[in-house]
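Researcher: Structure for this, please.
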Amino acid sequence: METSIEQQTKDVLILARRAVENAKDAAALNVAYQEYLGKRGMLRKLLRSVGELSPHERPVQGRFVHNAIAIVEELFSHKLGEFERKEEAHVLQHERLDVTIPAKKVHRGRLHVLTEMRREVGRIFVGLGFSVASGPEVEDAWHNFDALNIPEDHPARDLWDTLWLRSNQKIKNSKGQLLLRTHTSPVQIRYMVEHQPPFRIIVPGRVYRFEATDATHEVQFWQLEGLMVSQRDDPDAVNAGHFLWIIEQFYSQLFRKQIATRLRPSFFPFTEPSFEVDMRCLFCGGRGCASCGHSGWLEMMGAGMVHPKVFRSVGLNPKDVQGFAFGMGLERLCMMKYKIPDIRLFRGGDVRFLQQF
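Model: Predicted structure, token format:
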């Protein structure tokens, strides 16, 4: 058996040398490599047969086969190096690079103006002590309407305002039929169910309305919800004065200058009292122009003190807690800051528009 393995190894070594010498290219060399050194190659088979020898013969024969494997690997490596050097010489000879040719301009991508606005708004509110919360865009009727004191007969629940999800059978869960959320306010409901006051949060997110598209309205747009709640017996209990100060700080930081604001009485089902927030028109400086209806003021958001029924719906006693909520459109902020005349430009896909910011 000893003589047989030695002789077979010598024969295979001769064949391997011949195969390496006759290989015309790297592909042929790889075929030969697999034949002799692959998992099922001749030398690998001989190495496995050494295991059948006696403990006394095994070391000697194993060393002989291992030496042969090392020799053949060196032959293949040297031949492969020759092919690589020839290929490199061929490339240098026939594939020249003219370094004097002007390079192609690489167009760098950039963040969408709405993304930049969302990050900027978030940075400002986080600096004012708020945290960022989020929730699902597919909501149920309870979180989107009922818990916010919007009953079934409210106009907002009409088909022409809300995008309801339908199939052959009504899609429902334990909280009612599903829909695409019409505002980010459902997130404040979810947050208050899971957390105890005091807290202050903002909720940026996409919302959906089934309405005609024009220069100031879209089916889909970004909204920013804000909520701040404290205990009533807190010496610094949240009130409308806190809200006014926070909003003035927000506008001043966003527009990089002092912005005059005012509150007007209004009505929202989920706040009491409710008010609209106006800011001094940036186009005319308050003198009156077409953009502000010649009033000198622009309506920017709705807000108010959280309605007692909303607190009760999430298990909080309105006698123990109080707070304010507000909501604004991010597209509206962008339109004001960059003087964009049409909301449809944000999603029109015109690169010329997006490259301005």
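Researcher: Any notable elements?
Model: Residues 113-354 form a domain with the BirA Bifunctional Protein; domain 2 fold (CATH 3.30.930.10). The first strand starts at residue 131 and ends at 132.
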